[in-house]
Here is the input.
Amino acid sequence: MKNIFCVLLLSMVQPVLAQTKLEKAITNLEDHYDQEKVYLLTDKSQYAAGDKIWFKSFVFDGYNRSALSTTLFVELYNSDKKLIDWKTILLTNGEGSGDFKLNENLPEQVYFVRAYTPYMNNFNEDFQIVKALPVYNPSSPESLVISKSSDWSAKAFPEGGNFINGIPTKFAVRLSSNTSLPENWTGKVIDTQNPKTPVSTFKSFDKNVAAFTITPASGKKYQVVIQDNAGKEKTIDLPQVADSGLHLDINSSKDGVKYTLKGVNLKQQLQGYKIVGTINNHLAYKANIKQLTNEVSSLIPPKISNGANAILQLAIFDDQDQLVAKRLCFIKPNDLKIEKAEIIGQSLKQTPRSFNSIDLSPESYFKNYTVLVSEDDGSNKPDEENLLSSLWLTGDFTSNIDSPAQYFSKNANAEALDALLISENWKRFDWTSVLSGSVPTIKTNSQQFLSYKIKPIKNNALLINTPISLMLKLGKNQPVLNQFMTDQNGYAYLNNLNNNDPLEVSLFVGSENDKEANTDNLFVTIEPLVTPTPFKGNFPSTKYTLVKGSENKTLPPAISKAINTQKNNKKIESAEIQIEQVKLVGKKKDPKEELNKQLSSGMFNSINDVVFDFVNEDQRAAGANNILDWLQGRVAGVTLQRNSSGINVPYIRNKPAKLYLDEMITDPTLINSIPVSNIAMVKVIKNSGLLGDAVAIYTMKGNMQSKNTGKEATKANSAIIKGYDKPSEFLIEMLDDDSPAKIENDTRQTLYWNPNLFDSDYVPPRIKFFNNDTAKQFKVLIISFDEDDHILYQNEIFK
Here is the structure.
């Protein structure tokens, strides 16, 4: 929502012209409270150890995709807050994608994915997204089960915050729990002086909330008695009845937001009171009551949000600019402004492994799509969270809401959403702080892409205010030489880099006679200026608990299918290796291939490996301190980071790689102790179904001799910048019954994943996938935004 501002007048309401304390607060709010929120879509809601998690991130500034940030950190933690993996994601128009490869040995437990931009660190950490994902492992000694605990608490919230004698007042009753809420519950309102006769009764709209209305009497004490479907009962007190104050009543419909103010026993009645409406921390509506009256009413039209859906925070201030009432409401409930994809053709078959396609219109205003196709199991189980509920609800609230997606579903209950908002407070800012002139401390500004601080050293001394040359080599591209001047602290800077291939940075400094550059006694270090931050908070509670596993462990059906799919993938990979070996028959023997065959077993053979032959080829490693230092910068996606002992440890796609010595698991300390002359072969294995990511070192056998005679000095003047993590490609493959790897039972759940499907030259964007062996209908999710950030959201079952 951009540039929304409107002043509406009642017959007794005039615009506020003077720069009052409140006016200054509103200016403060609009100038200093821009904030972001993240929605993270994953291809599944639960995983098996060894699976890949595909994710798409959407970053919003209010209700529009954010232009503030170009970098997103996405981190994977176990339940003990140990960081398992993390990704640096490039954001384009607020969108970015990536994936995590789960280790097969991960213990069964709930894992958590945290996502945030560097700019979000300026504000409350509670607004960063932390998504719980249960991960199952049949080999784990413990099992995840749904908690049977039904402990819950309740609170009652009067509309507007006040409970005044003689004024009919609407209350929202909100339940909360650290585990699961009861399926349904009922309640009654009682007068403590006559508890046997209910003043009012109600039943829950859903697990979260209920509502009732009563007219209180002065001197009375009221309580709410709540009973859940299991018979558990709790009693809570309502606020004390006041004899004076302001009552706020709101009704939101497709025509707008109607509010009514009633004053009771106020000295100046409502004269001098101000009504302020904000949307996304920006002024959307403002009015000032100039006349003596005890009641005013007005309709705020939907144009204050440009006709879009949004949460409006209405705040009422007295003649001293003191906050006296506030209320959240949703603009245009049950009238969601959501587009659907224009489908111009589809071919869907229920037969196993059949080719299916859905064609979208190339004439649409929507050009880029996020698409997920899964097997629908027929359970009709709704999503607990989705893009809409994150955008309009949970992204702005820190309290736990059970299944928030229900409030924006086809059969959503507008009364339930309204009651939920009565029970919530807008916590992105509080009026007390804004009125006092307080502003957030912005420690981290939004930077375009990634930036780095270069520290060049020559002869163990900093180069201050010195011209230097940096040769930059991106991936396989030709190197480019750039001139820099260090500052008074001895640093040079590389700003606004958006590379997702490794960038090698080499330092050169002119010689004393200034005739040529050289690398004598040069050393360079690189420090990233856009960095992730430690997680300080606590993970949200979940409905799961860990119990001791039984011998006959029962897994959810979806997890059993996932494990079978992993077995199928390994079978396919093994068959591909066999095919490659068959192709070698009859060909001239390749010395490197023969060495690989001689030293490595089948488990260590992968189509995704890179082999360095030290027996038949001169790898110019004689001058290297050790084999791991030599490996630096030689394989795309492989970086080395120093551990606490100062030893380089290999990382593949920012995840620690396993180290093997002659196919036995080992540690970098042992590897570093082996002379390079004793190395016969080095193999870098990426994303193998058997090993995952690994570096395998093989030593000389028998009469082998190293061919490394050249002396190559260690490149202390060079360093590698990893940059953004490049997302993996989701492969669309047909399982052929006639292939060597015959798959008897195709159980893939995610049939298609494309975080960036787009049309090109008026060619219809096509969603294409192969069916598995059981799917009879398909769950298709399509998300897109046009240039004005109008939403296309479609989540339907296709047959």
